[in-house]
Specification:
275 residues, alpha/beta, Rossmann fold, four-stranded antiparallel beta sheet, 13 helices, 37% helix, globular, binds adenosine-5'-diphosphate, binds magnesium ion
Length: 275
């Protein structure tokens, strides 16, 4: 009984899939806030990893999320992407998509892409094929491998390779790329799905200084068209992209503002510098 209920049989709007418009058609991103989290809490064995969190991201923003280890950054991304269900609160995408009603793949289809810290490209396949496999459609991998791409699709792959600076590497196996290039390829693979919101976890960890700079330029070039939330520990990098910064502490927002605001914020200084 319970499992039947969980599958949504008792919800009229969920009985016939064809009666519900596709998620992407329902998304209304026209007003300012693209992501809206309010009063969100989640506890693991009684420990509140996220505690009455309020977090809002405007469309087109490049937001940096910082905070000590254990502050709740990853858990927050897990909640947005449907991997973890909060105990309470609201998580709304666009004006009208309740993310708590959707599972992980529905959330991805709705336009939220996530990049984990470790690159997960297909090492034996070329850069081109990695991008091709990541393309937004609902065909199986097998189908994708068998079919000829149309020119629009090839254009999209080449355009993305350009954006991530890997045009020259399109025919090279992904395994031959540097660590930084693999991170860019993975960002490119996310872009192939045309996400509205990109969640990126520690993109510059392990990068050279030069790669870090290029990553900053890449993210800045994507902002506006996409909305981006970056978790990053490297303060020099955060400063270099100079967006709005949110400081998370004990599962809740401690401070928010420009890097300068954050550095001068009394609460931040108290928590981080013991002042
Ligand atoms: N699945 C889980 N089960 C138990 N505790 C968890 C789980 N996920 C996270 N936590 C705890 O929640 C807190 C926040 O973790 P996390 O979101 O990973 O922080 P951050 O990414 O900011 O380092 C930590 O104390 C962590 O140990
Ligand atoms: Mg984390």
């Amino acid at each position: 009984m319970n499992s039947v209920k969980q599958r949504g049989f008792f919800r009229r709007d969920k009985v016939f899939d064809f009666l519900t418009p596709p998620i992407s058609d329902r998304l209304d991103p026209t007003h300012g806030t693209l992501l809206y989290m309010e009063d969100v809490s989640v506890a693991f064995d009684g420990f509140k990893a996220i505690n009455d969190l309020n977090f809002y991201v405007d469309k087109g923003e490049l937001r940096c999320l910082i905070g000590a280890n254990g502050a709740g950054k990853t858990t927050m991304m897990d909640i947005i992407t449907g991997k973890t269900r909060p105990d309470k609160g609201e998580v709304i995408f666009g004006k009208n998509i309740d993310l708590l009603d959707l599972n992980e793949s529905e959330i991805a289809i709705a336009g939220i892409g996530r990049k984990f810290q470790k690159p997960t490209v297909f090492e034996n396949l070329s850069v081109f094929m990695n991008l091709e496999l990541a393309m937004a459609d609902f065909k199986s991998v097998w189908w994708t491998l068998r079919c000829k791409l149309n020119s629009t699709q090839v254009d999209q792959i080449e355009h993305t390779a350009n954006v991530i600076g890997l045009v020259e590497k399109l025919q090279d196996p992904a395994g031959s790329l540097s660590h930084g290039q693999k991170q860019w390829l993975e960002i490119g693979m996310l872009l192939m799905q045309r996400p509205l919101l990109l969640l990126i976890d520690e993109p510059v960890a392990g990068m050279t200084h030069q790669e870090m700079e290029k990553t900053g330029e890449l993210l800045l070039s994507l902002a506006g068209k996409h909305t981006i939330v970056v978790v990053e520990h490297d303060m020099e990098f955060v400063r270099s992209i100079a967006g709005r910064v949110t400081v998370l502490n004990q599962g809740t927002v401690l401070a928010e503002g420009s890097m300068e605001d954050i550095q001068n914020n009394e609460d931040v200084r108290r928590v981080y510098l013991g002042e």
